[in-house]
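Researcher: We're teaching a course module on how sequence relates to structure. For the next exercise, students receive a sequence and then see the predicted structure as tokens, so they can try to spot secondary structure elements on their own. Here is the exercise chain.
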Amino acid sequence: MTLHILTAIFIIGPLAATTVTAPRLVRLGRPGLAGLRGALATVRWLSAGSIVTAGLGFSLVHKGSFGSVRSLSDTWLSASIVLWVVAVLVNLGVVAPALNRAARDVEDYGDGRRHLPALVLGGSLTALCWALIVVLMTVKPGT
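Model: And here is the predicted structure for the students to work with:
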């Protein structure tokens, strides 16, 4: 459990922070270009790296606290898995490509703001997914 929580803090925490702060880097224009490239790498690597957190979580499914038995059919667990998949897919399918295009536009034209809607929407959606996962993992509704 400790490793699951630590990887959530050190992998998903920075990932969530990066996705919600990336639009500010786009607004900076050329001065934010290095940060944009760093944000792109962070989103790609940590989205993929979040599988470590998920894998550690899967390893805990049948080891419920205080002798309780958990199953993937528990609503809070299955909902958390779906939210994790959604967050990773949005990061890799919306946020990362928008960051890449924004970085190219900033480099070529000095302005990547036309990609802000995708970044803001994608970052907000993934942040909501991570927050809901924390709520589900804490409250465990239905148990």
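Model: If you want an answer key for the exercise: Residues 2 and 56 are 10 Å apart (CA to CA). The chain has one domain: 2-139.
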